Amino acid sequence: xxxxxxxxxxxxxxxxxxxxxxxLSFRIPKGAFWALMGxxxxxxxTVLHLIAGLxxxxxxxxxxxxxxxxxxxxxxxxALRRRRVGYVLQTFNLLPFLTAEENVGMPLVLDGVxxxxxxxxxxxxxxxxxxxxxxxxxxxxxxxxxxxxxxxxRALVIEPAIILADEPTGNLxxxxxxxxxxxxxxxxxxxxxxxxxxxxxPVFAAYGQxxxxxxxxxxxxxxxxxxxxxxxDLGVAG
Length: 238
Prior knowledge:
This protein is α/β, with parallel strands linked by helices. It has helices spanning 44-51, 74-83, 100-110, 115-128, 144-156, 174-191, 202-205, and strands spanning 2-11, 18-28, 33-37, 59-64, 67-68, 85-89, 162-166, 194-198, 210-215, 218-224. Helices cover 33% and strands 26% of the residues.
């Protein structure tokens, strides 16, 4: 569960202050798949950073699984990111000198998980994204879509409660983007992990159950979408 209660985030002070998020309130229930839209600079990525504890709110309350992020110490917020929040980014952020399976296992290794458990969880995560056959390959030998699948497996390997996906289709062609969105939807339905997707694309936003639109850090539109079959092909030519 993610809850924002009258949250504002201001960067800087005085006449140069920037209000990135402005009195924002919403509640995402456990297991939901929501999308966040808006023009560049509307505060979308700041919302993700607030949820992950990367930046504290200037006012209001951000709660993740019933815990107020602002009350966490730096070590507690770091533990939240390592163990409860999986990030999927536009740029993949895979280490080129590591294999796919080594990239997926890195969060567990850094968290001190025993190697036997790392191996088991990496294998399971790769199977979930249909990339077991590419486990020994380095990123340079993978397509963009395959690299994003590995990045999703890396987010899943910590067995997160929440996945924050920040423009995960931004570096992919239309077909690759649809494949990644199908996968994220499947993961949400299979594991009941809460997903918050940031996207500029209304077709990909429609994979979610609800869409919030931000403008200048404020909630301008809140749309609940009709139920649809799993991994629906929305019929957009690519």
